[in-house]
């Protein structure tokens, strides 16, 4: 049994679905179901006894203690977070609460659980913390890519809160011997991503004939990784990573935002042509994000060299799969936007409650 936090979000749901496709080991999935959590993403697991969903807040120590005692997981995989940079600019408090206090609460509970385990189970236990490349700050055009030893320099409330959580995770290894692993990954894209993030937002706006808002000059660079490749990296780190180590994960796909939006428009022109003209005509340059990091780039040499991990998708194949998924799953997008998925949740998980379901 593994315990996943945030498994109703974008990456967590992709991870849980893939985990249960490829192993028989059960998952207890703890998620508060904020606006970003969507049990509709896990609809295909309905009736699958290997998936135990618990609606709960990771900041609730009593609930976390109860879950660990009840399910006795061999690992905690911590995805839950407030994840959207723009939202963190407008309302940083929830980011500090979930990302810092929530991670601290989980670490405290995991420490108590860990010391209660018999020696042979302590040996196998892992706490895997899913983090971001944004903790390293912003690169100039000629700077080398982020490595695991790049100094932290977070610039947004989101990245600062994630940096705080990374430091706590590190401290619990060095001070208490909790066997932690941390992954710092670049921008993910793929199925089930909430349409507030660049790629699903652009697809959705284009299909609705709305403007495509590109921040600033559109020349900010991100390093893109298909979500299934991030999930395979997490599995690899869980299985073979060395306790106390951090691993950078990225796809070697540095693209400017404008390049990404152009490629998306061209794919949509091919797969779902607009009534007239090209989707590129919808692009609008808008006011920049405050404190907007200019460039991120990941050096994934450590995870590739020591664990043999490789991404399966190129940006071109991953983006095509993503556009195809959104075109085929408009009901999912509309559900997220209209709040219909919450009705589905009430219907199918009527008996859920905070605590052990
Ligand atoms: P997301 O916003 O799609 O999902 C977050 C999930 O966490 C949601 O299901 C939400 O309900 C849940 N959650 C939030 N607060 C909670 C709380 N207090 N208690 C329990 N559950 C709570 O995020 P995502 O994009 O899937 O990101 C997952 C993790 O990966 C985050 O830690 C994020 O920092 C990290 N990450 C994301 C990316 C990316 O590009 N999306 C890249 C690198 C790292
Ligand atoms: O680098 C990893 C991070 O990637 C994760 O830790 C975060 O959780 C995740 O949200 C993502 O952060 P970004 O800020 O890079 O992602 P976002 O999709 O919000 O924006 C990507 C780029 O596109 C960024 O430079 C801002 C720009 N942008 C974004 C939106 C939503 C636009 O130009 N227009 C938009 O409408």
Automatic annotation (TrEMBL):
<feature type="domain" description="NAD(P)-binding">
    <location>
        <begin position="3"/>
        <end position="322"/>
    </location>
</feature>
<keyword id="KW-0456">Lyase</keyword>
<keyword id="KW-0520">NAD</keyword>
<comment type="similarity">
    <text>Belongs to the NAD(P)-dependent epimerase/dehydratase family. dTDP-glucose dehydratase subfamily.</text>
</comment>
<dbReference type="InterPro" id="IPR005888">
    <property type="entry name" value="dTDP_Gluc_deHydtase"/>
</dbReference>
<dbReference type="InterPro" id="IPR036291">
    <property type="entry name" value="NAD(P)-bd_dom_sf"/>
</dbReference>
<dbReference type="Pfam" id="PF16363">
    <property type="entry name" value="GDP_Man_Dehyd"/>
</dbReference>
<dbReference type="InterPro" id="IPR016040">
    <property type="entry name" value="NAD(P)-bd_dom"/>
</dbReference>
<protein>
    <recommendedName>
        <fullName>dTDP-glucose 4,6-dehydratase</fullName>
        <ecNumber>4.2.1.46</ecNumber>
    </recommendedName>
</protein>
């Amino acid at each position: 049994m593994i315990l996943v936090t945030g498994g109703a979000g974008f990456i967590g749901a992709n991870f849980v679905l893939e985990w249960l496709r490829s192993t028989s080991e059960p998952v207890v999935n703890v998620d508060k179901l904020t606006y970003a959590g969507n049990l509709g993403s896990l609809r295909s697991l309905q009736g699958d006894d290997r998936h135990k969903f618990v609606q709960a807040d990771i900041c609730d120590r009593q609930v976390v203690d109860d879950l660990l005692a009840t399910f006795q997981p061999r690992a905690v995989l911590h995805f839950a977070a407030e994840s959207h940079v723009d939202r963190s600019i407008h309302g940083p408090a929830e980011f500090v609460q979930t990302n810092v206090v929530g991670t601290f609460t989980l670490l405290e509970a995991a420490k108590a659980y860990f010391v209660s385990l018999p020696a042979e189970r302590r040996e196998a236990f892992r706490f895997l913390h899913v983090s971001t490349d944004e903790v390293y700050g912003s690169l100039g055009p000629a700077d080398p890519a982020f490595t695991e030893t790049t100094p932290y320099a977070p610039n947004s409330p989101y990245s600062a809160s994630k940096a705080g959580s990374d430091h706590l995770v590190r401290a619990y290894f060095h001070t208490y011997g909790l066997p932690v692993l941390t992954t710092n990954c670049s921008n993910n894209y793929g199925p089930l991503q909430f349409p507030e993030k660049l790629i699903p937002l652009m697809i959705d706006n284009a299909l609705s004939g709305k403007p495509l808002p590109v921040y600033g000059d559109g020349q900010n660079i991100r390093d893109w990784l298909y979500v299934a490749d991030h999930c395979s990296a997490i599995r690899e780190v869980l299985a073979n990573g060395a306790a106390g180590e951090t691993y950078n994960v990225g796809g070697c796909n540095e693209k400017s935002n404008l390049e990404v939006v152009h490629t998306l428009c061209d794919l949509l022109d091919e797969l779902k042509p607009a009534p007239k003209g090209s989707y590129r005509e919808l692009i609008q340059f808008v006011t920049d994000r405050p404190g907007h990091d200019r460039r991120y780039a990941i050096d994934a040499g450590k995870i590739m060299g020591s664990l043999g991990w490789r991404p399966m998708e190129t940006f071109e194949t991953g983006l095509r799969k993503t556009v195809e998924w959104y075109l085929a799953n408009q009901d999912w997008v509309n559900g997220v936007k209209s709040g219909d998925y919450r009705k589905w949740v009430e219907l199918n998980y009527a008996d859920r409650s905070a605590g052990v379901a």
